């Protein structure tokens, strides 16, 4: 929890950060995470030059420390001077709730109008898989998977670490998540250099990913969907390559009554991934359904923090 702040204050700061994100969206110019990405690329080019596994691992750890720790320390110093305003601004810059909506809902609109070319172009902006020959089902599946997984990475994990460490905690999580997205690949270039970034992101995501998965279960529309989402989580999550994305995506797919995962093409190579959820294949309209699940989960998390704030207030003023 934020040191020195009561639960009512924490609840107000979280609501303020979420509202700023919904009202303003991503910074169109000079976004801090874009600048951080440029810094990460510079460090990677300078330090990822060793072909020996053990030395490459330690170089990757050094790159992670140089990229993350100075910025987190700087954010702590700023928060100590500016107080609550700095915490709110840091949470705003780290959240991506409105961004998820703006990048994904237009894909559903394009598919609804039969504009496959537009949908392919929009989907290519948010996923790394090939979309040039993708069908409507492929595009809808890609967008829905992205929404479910990034709901945790861009929203709920960020809110969780804000509760733990305020603005600097949210920043730590988002920077670690960004480095995992940039370096955490099992390729000859990043297998050892990016190992540290991948493992740190895994550790930071253990609790928020499972809270997100539980939220998806609770917010499934019907009782049978809730039970279905729970069964998918428990039986399918372990088969997914990521230990934290597995629970999130399996429970989300089950809650939506969709079958996700399966075949996808990356760099011209067809990969057969594990199946998540069960039911029908995704369609364009399911992108909006996935977004609504993310939005309801956000309201649930804010409501839980608000309830904790109310209980705290009445217990201290009784």
Q: Can you tell me about this structure?
A:
The chain has 318 residues and is mainly alpha-helical. It has one domain. It contains 11 helices and 2 strands; from the N terminus they run ααααααααααββα. A two-stranded antiparallel ribbon has the order 1-2. Helix 5 runs antiparallel to helix 11 and helix 9 runs antiparallel to helix 10.
At a glance:
With 318 residues, the protein is mainly alpha-helical. The chain is built from eleven helices and two strands, in the order ααααααααααββα. A two-stranded antiparallel sheet has the order 1-2.
Average pLDDT over all residues = 91
What is the multimeric organization of the chains shown? single chain
Name the strands of the widest sheet in spatial order: 1-2
- The number of distinct structural domains comes to 1
Low-confidence stretches are none
Radius of gyration, Cα only, in angstroms? 20 Å
Q: Please identify the structural class as seen in this structure.
A: mainly alpha
Keywords: Cell membrane, Cobalamin biosynthesis, Membrane, Transmembrane, Transmembrane helix
Pfam families: CobD_Cbib
Pathway: Cofactor biosynthesis; adenosylcobalamin biosynthesis
Transmembrane segments: 6-24, 62-93, 154-176, 293-314
